[in-house]
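Morning!

This is the sequence you dropped in the shared folder:
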Amino acid sequence: MIDIMTAIQSLTPNAECVVRGTEIEWHSTDIPQPTDAEITAEVTRLQAEYDNNQYQRDRQYAPTGDQLDMLWHS
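The structure's back. Tokens below.
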């Protein structure tokens, strides 16, 4: 599950803030804080991206050494 902090880091990578639940304490005076709508949209986008790539996380490969050993012996 994508959280608020992940969305904020995606939107404003160099910003400094603290997130407590749904409360955001913004510390970066030189970087504008994203709106709630922007954060919600980014959470939705990142979650969809994460969900769409489930197949990549499900793929299991043998460790590289085992793969090379199997190639050598075949």
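Headline: The two ends are 42 Å apart (CA to CA).

More detail when I'm at my desk.
O.
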